[in-house]
Design brief:
This protein is of the alpha/beta class. 28% of the residues lie in helices and 28% in strands. It comes from Herbaspirillum robiniae.
Length: 339
């Protein structure tokens, strides 16, 4: 095994301050595993953290970005028994959140926790999950944040089932995982986007209905029309601001809004009247625990889930990948460490 490795590091906020540096390969301590990273999936949160630290609490330079990786265990620390050398693993998004309610000691990877944009990473063994055999390393790397977020919203909390209707806003990683989960459970998906080409691609993945938000700004009314006046069972709210009001108005009686994204505004705006009349469940989704990732990994094999990756970049191409992330990819972007 090599004695030195490359990792991305940022000493000051701003993409221009990203540096690829060479440092010694770390040695695993008690209960830790050393993983040779094969692929790292990017999330919009990574761009926010690189820009100004707004992707989470207590984010401050210096740090190594990114939370989501897949790789191979190459060394074990004393008393580390969850995995054998050679095992394929994924990182969990939250280090220390294994199940149940979020514990106060949990830490998000990719700042303030350890970042995955490194040729080797050290993790406590409890912060990793076996990668699905049915998925490539690049595909597996997309599960910890985007995949678990969709799973937590629709399956873990939403109890998604056949015959329901799910509204998905945009065509990023979370929404496209939601689209595939809806299809796997026998539910129909309505996809909203301002890009006709992306809507066509979503239809090819199984979307039952499409709405161009630029031509149909009152998309909530379109959802009600598409559902025979009933409204949707689930809405994945990705935008914030005034869009939240439309999400509430698109729901059936007693439906569920999962608040996930802040692409438009960190605040959400709505009248209280739809709350009284519609009796919705409104739940914030902060990714999910390790058990959710383990269940999603099993489902990926059984249900044939295929994470949508728009492009794979080489490890040295992080700045270009961040630019692509800002433009809004269809699905996920992944950095491969064998390139």
């Amino acid at each position: 095994m090599e004695k030195h490795m490359r990792r991305w590091r940022i000493e000051q906020f701003g993409k221009q301050n990203l540096r690829l540096e060479t440092v010694p390969v770390p040695t695993p301590g008690r209960g830790e595993i050393l993983v040779r990273v094969a692929a790292v999936a990017l999330n919009y949160r990574d761009k926010m953290n690189i820009d100004n630290g707004s992707g989470g609490a207590q984010v401050a330079p210096p740090f190594t970005p990114a939370s989501d990786m897949a790789g191979e265990v190459v060394a074990l620390g004393e008393d580390a028994r969850r995995f054998a050398v050679g095992a394929r693993v994924m990182s969990t998004f939250w280090g220390g959140w294994l199940d149940g309610e979020w514990p106060s000691h949990a830490v998000a990877l990719g700042a303030p926790g350890p970042g995955m944009l490194s040729e080797y990473v050290l993790l406590p063994e409890d912060w990793a999950v076996a990668a699905p055999a049915a998925l490539s390393d690049a595909q597996a790397s997309t599960l910890p944040c985007a995949g678990v977020t969709a799973w937590s919203a629709l399956v873990e909390h939403g109890r998604l089932h056949a015959g329901q209707t799910v509204v998905l806003q945009g065509t990023g990683g979370v929404s496209l995982f939601g689209l595939q989960l809806a299809a796997a459970h026998g539910a129909q998906a309505i996809v909203i986007s301002g890009d006709d080409a992306k809507l066509e691609r979503a239809q090819a993945l199984g979307a039952a209905h499409l709405i161009n938000r630029r031509r149909t700004p009152r998309w909530d009314e379109a959802v009600r029309e598409m559902t025979g006046g009933r409204g949707a069972d689930h809405v994945l709210e990705m935008v914030g601001g005034d869009n939240f009001r439309l999400s509430l108005q698109a729901l059936r009686q007693g439906g569920r809004v999962s608040v996930i994204g802040l692409l438009g505004d960190a605040e959400i705006h709505a009248s209280s009247v739809p709350l009284f009349l519609g009796r919705p469940t409104i739940q914030g989704i902060g990714v999910g625990h390790r058990r959710a990732l383990e269940e999603l990994a099993r489902a990926a094999g059984h249900a044939g889930l295929a994470p949508v990756i728009e492009r794979e970049y080489g490890f040295g191409d992080l700045p270009q990948a961040i630019d692509h992330l800002e433009r809004g990819p269809f699905g996920k972007l992944v950095l491969r460490l064998d390139r």
